[in-house]
Amino acid sequence: MGDTIAAIATPPGLGGIAVIRVSGPEAETIAGRIFRPKGAISRLRSHTLHAGTIVSPSTGEIVDEVLAVIMRKPRSYTGEDVLEIHCHGGYVVPRAVLEAVLQAGARPAEAGEFTRRAFLNDRMDLSQAEAVGELITAATSEGARLALSHLGGAVGARIAAAEERLMDLLARLEASLDFGEDEGIPAREGIADRIQEEVRLLNDLADTYRTGRLYRQGAGVVIMGRTNVGKSSLLNRLLGETRAIVTPLPGTTRDFIEEAVDVVGLPVRLTDTAGIRPTDDMIEQAEHVKLEIADWSALPEDEVLRSELRKVLERAIGELPEIYRAVMLLRDVEELSTEETAQVLDVNTDTVKTRLHRARLAVRQKLDQYLRHSVSVN
Fold first, then answer.
1. Fold of the CATH domain 219-377
2. What is the DSSP letter of 332?
3. What's CA 194's distance to the chain center, in Å?
4. Cβ neighbours of residue 107 under 8 Å, at least 6 residues apart?
5. Is residue 198 scored above 70 in pLDDT?
6. Assigned CATH for 124-216
């Protein structure tokens, strides 16, 4: 980490302010090359905003009027010297300021590199580093609250406490084996019970992952059923707006309609689907295939379309990575149970479920591409 990195730290787009972040041993030197403070300042004071201008190191022209702050190590996000430049927002100015920084000696930062440096410099543990991404991508206030708790070190503190207790148990156990009770070392009674208690506490901690994943990734809810039973009306009611067209005619919904909704802090992806009914309509038939992709018998009765869709499905499965293709063939073609598939592949059932979900998703995407092409051609 001997080099200095830089990147625009704010999202692209129109806005009043953008922030360019610079981190590394040359951060303050770069500030001296491109930042011209207002007033006579011999050295920028750490953790203090200074007004001034950014000039191009190649031409000397003024790029923008800015506020700049230097944060000297170790009191910075990355644990290194950090320079932040607050310039005007938009598309042009932030890029021009970043270009000046790069010309002055920095290199473009990789995705997540500032947080990676913070982790490597012991500014945060791994759970906190992961929480940074969770907080940024949180879709609900409850998800942000959980991420902020992790960022504060709640998970890391519980793991560290468990590690300390286990190390104490290990020391006691080794001492009892080496010296015995005759030399004043406590007996080994009760150690097994304490270990079991630690296992229980760690399992409880691991179980919180599922809850955290739900708040991070959201839950998928598919509204499906026969035609004209109120699926689209239910979607509109849950969203509080008219997102899906509602008519008395069967088959109004022809494709998936997806919308996100906040349900008591949990992000939920609602999907409205075409009603299930016998039909000669190619698009509706295709929707049923996508809904029941695991069942080869769900292919439509029309022989031409059935043949083409089968080819697409077989090609899509053939293009899957081996670990996913094997799961899909065993579960969806050979119709083995999840437990039987896990035994054949020598993996646990959770792995089978995860790989099957990803395989089906990839196949659905291939089928979607084919259907869009077919409809556009016709």
1. Arc Repressor Mutant, subunit A (1.10.10)
2. I
3. 36
4. 3, 4, 5, 6
5. yes
6. 1.20.120.430
